[in-house]
């Protein structure tokens, strides 16, 4: 188990087994708890698109550059890529124990099941289908999909992989 400074009643920093640093349950967290607010800079959609494009370009066509922006409402997004947002350290998993929820104009990381003390907090980043190849998943759970793609669009990745395999066969 990793150790680290407590940053709220529920959460502390730690070294992740998945990727770099992560956030860990400081104590047992009951299901449906608002564990930590995902804070950041409130920006317009236009600014959001600009930053997204810039980050994706800088990180070689994807990577984890597009992780930090959440939709607040029709006009504004939240850019959580700021030092004062510890929730940005939460890693992705295909078998998560938390999920981001928009609650009255704020984004909260909410426990989707009871979480034991010392467990790493994880949510499904759920990227769009677009650029799926740039987001391979190494979360390590048995049910890992292999790519970080939102559930509703995974069938498109399966189809693309199946077609790719068929293409390779016919070209031989
Ligand atoms: Zn995975």
Kindly describe this structure.
This protein is α+β, with helices and mostly antiparallel strands and 172 residues long. The protein has three domains: 1-36 and 85-125, Beta-clip-like; 40-80, no CATH class; 128-172. Helix content is 19%, strand content 24%. The protein is built from two helices and ten strands. It has helices at 45-58, 154-171, and strands at 11-15, 21-25, 34-38, 41-44, 69-71, 76-79, 91-92, 98-103, 106-111, 122-123. The chain has a three-stranded antiparallel sheet, with no helix packed on it. The radius of gyration is 17 Å and the shape is globular. It starts with 10 loop residues before the first strand and ends with a helix. The relative contact order is 0.17. The model has no long low-confidence stretch (mean pLDDT 86). The protein binds zinc ion.
């Amino acid at each position: 188990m990793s150790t680290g400074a407590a940053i709220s009643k529920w959460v502390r920093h730690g070294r992740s087994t998945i990727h770099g640093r992560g956030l860990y349950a400081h104590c047992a967290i009951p299901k449906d708890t608002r564990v930590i607010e995902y804070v950041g800079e409130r920006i317009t959609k236009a600014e959001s698109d600009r930053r997204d494009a810039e980050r994706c370009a800088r990180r070689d066509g994807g990577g984890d550059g597009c992780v930090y922006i959440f939709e607040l409402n029709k006009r504004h997004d939240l850019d959580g890529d700021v030092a004062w947002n510890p929730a940005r350290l939460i890693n992705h998993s295909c078998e998560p124990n938390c999920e981001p929820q928009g609650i009255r104009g704020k984004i909260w990381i909410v426990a989707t099941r009871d979480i034991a003390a010392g467990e790493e907090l994880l949510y499904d980043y759920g990227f769009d289908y677009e650029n799926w190849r740039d987001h391979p998943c190494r979360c390590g759970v048995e049910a890992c999909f292999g790519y970080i793609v939102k559930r509703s669009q995974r069938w498109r990745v399966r189809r693309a992989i199946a077609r790719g395999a068929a293409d390779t066969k016919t070209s031989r």
